[in-house]
């Protein structure tokens, strides 16, 4: 990978910035070689004819807690850190960065994909009770077109990007396990603290604001990926977030 920066403080990465490394490693995980979208016959024809797939705004999905679940789990987990050796202001800063994100990130659009091409629950729920289609996609191709780390880490000429070329989706794994969710939050807090310590004067308003901004931004993919374990029987393996 080649490190590439653009004129935005969120994308100015240092080679020893493990907070950035953690963020990029999660958001650019290697997906399965094939991913599948279950859909009805009518929707399948629309996909073929338009050569497009449409994501749904998160408040219209089957899960009313979509995205909010991740925020709630994260904030609840932070309570366990308030009695730890981390500075109180540090934990309060992460909490402040996450509070209100349910409203701030309302305009998220999600399209679900599965690693399983023949899953009974998916046929029943999304494919007209088995009369629809399971549409297969190359996982690597989807990842390479994603708009997160690839356009920064690879040698892509951003200045000469086509105006109508959109790469604004993220290809992310869906995490159902409570243990996996909690472990990821613990890792997030750990690397966020290294970034906190790297700031020259955290009591200076600009430094503190930058810390809040980094935490809010780098937690976004995690919040999108977390889903209630109650939905694990109707699994989706990956989701594409258009933000």
Could you characterize what this model shows?
With about 240 residues, the protein is α+β, with helices and mostly antiparallel strands. About 45% of the residues lie in helices and about 10% in strands. The chain contains 10 helices and 6 strands. The chain has helices at about 20-25, 40-50, 70-80, 90-100, 100-105, 120-125, 140-145, 150-155, 180-200, 205-225; strands at about 35-40, 55, 110-115, 135-140, 170-175, 240. The strands form 2 sheets. A 4-stranded antiparallel β-sheet has the order 2-3-6-5, with helices on one face. Helix 9 (about 180-200) runs antiparallel to helix 10. The longest helix has 21 residues, at about 180-200. The radius of gyration is 19 Å and the shape is elongated. The relative contact order is 0.23. Mean pLDDT is about 80; it is low at about 1-10 and about 150-155.
Mean pLDDT across all amino acids: 79
Strand share of the residues?
5-15%
Low-pLDDT runs of 5+ residues are 1-10, 148-156
Instruction: Supply Rg.
Output: 19 Å
Q: Mind summarizing the main beta sheet? A: 4 strands, antiparallel
Question: Which sequence of strands runs across the widest sheet?
Answer: 2-3-6-5
Give the number of helices: 10
Q: Spell out the helices and strands N to C.
A: HEHEHHHEHEHHEHHE
- Structural class by helix and strand composition: alpha+beta
State the distance separating the first and last CA atoms: 24 Å
Could you give a quick summary of the protein structure above?
Helices cover about 45% and strands about 10% of the residues. The strands form two sheets. The chain has a four-stranded antiparallel sheet, with helices on one face.
